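User: Before I run my own analysis I want an independent prediction to cross-check against. Here's the chain; please return only the structure tokens and, at the end, one sentence I can use as a sanity check.
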Amino acid sequence: MSKTLVNIITREHPIAAYLFVKEYFEEGDRLLFVSANDSFDCITPLVKVLKIDPSLVQRIVLRRIADSYTYERICRTINNGVNQETQYYVNLAGGSRYMALSVQHVFSNYNSIFFYTQTQQNIIVRTIFDNSIYDNDDQIIPIKYKMNLAEYFDAYGLSHDLENLEPPISDETKARQMFNLFAKQQIRSNEYRILDVLREKYRGWKYLKIAEAEQPVKESMTTVPNLGKFLDFIKFIPKEEGVLSQQELEYLTGGWFEEYVYHLIKTVVQPDDIAMGVRIDGCTDIKHNNELDVCFIKNNQMHVIECKSGISSESMFNEIVYKVSALKEVLLGVDCNSYIFSLKKDPTGDLKKIATYMGITFCDYECLTREDKLRKVLQKM
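Assistant: Structure tokens:
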């Protein structure tokens, strides 16, 4: 028997609807989305990524503001769009409490089965609303389907460049070697100066000839003394002899830390999908450069890690925290878990408190260099 899958759709939480449909949609079924007026435009990208014929999709939109929070108006609007001949699978996740109560009330008068998609636990609960609360008839059903990163971004209507990403420069062994050089403070002050000049003057260049950097041929260039010896010391071999590419310049000036975190997560957490340096943007006329250092999906949970090998001050840390928090709130939604990984030391725990207050996990120098503490963070992922 065909059925109609009912979802409450909101801009902040489309993943609950997406996973519910992926679990229960069968050929011949239809979809019904209930939304407030300010969220109805989220239905189109969701239907697109679900790859379902738009003619099979029904929308019930609460056009007026008062209709989205007034119980009786919500019920009347929904009631006008349903019928007794259809079997409904109703997902009560998403929307306001009033919206969920209204949807449950209306569909209780029809041929309906009720569910709740709990994305944080990656489960769907099938519930019978009756007068008995002691017969333990709720069913907890693990979600079998596993999203990838592209599906997550597409469900939120975000543009991304996943198909055009460059592979990491280093393998896991090289990434660990670079991490140890910096974590064990084997880089000397004059060598940090080399990295500072590369970062300030040459990051973004398409290529840099090592000999010309050591002895500039143009007045506009800044000297990078002993660059070749430094590369030998850290055992970095450019892909093209005597030349650093743009990707290699980015690697030397901080990209190595992103690659270390990337390999760490890939090996220990074993995500379902992972990427580094993804650029995303909302589908609006206002464009921003929102780059995700490391992002991955594990059991349908999105995790985004901001990687900063060095943080010079508390004010700089605050800027990073606000950036990560805004990215989650504006683009990535409530399903996203956010982290900051850094070799910054936080002996007082003040930085960790700031991050925690904003819903972000801060993994500092001690966390990254102590196996027991790092294990706790990774296990939660």
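Sanity check: The radius of gyration is 25 Å.
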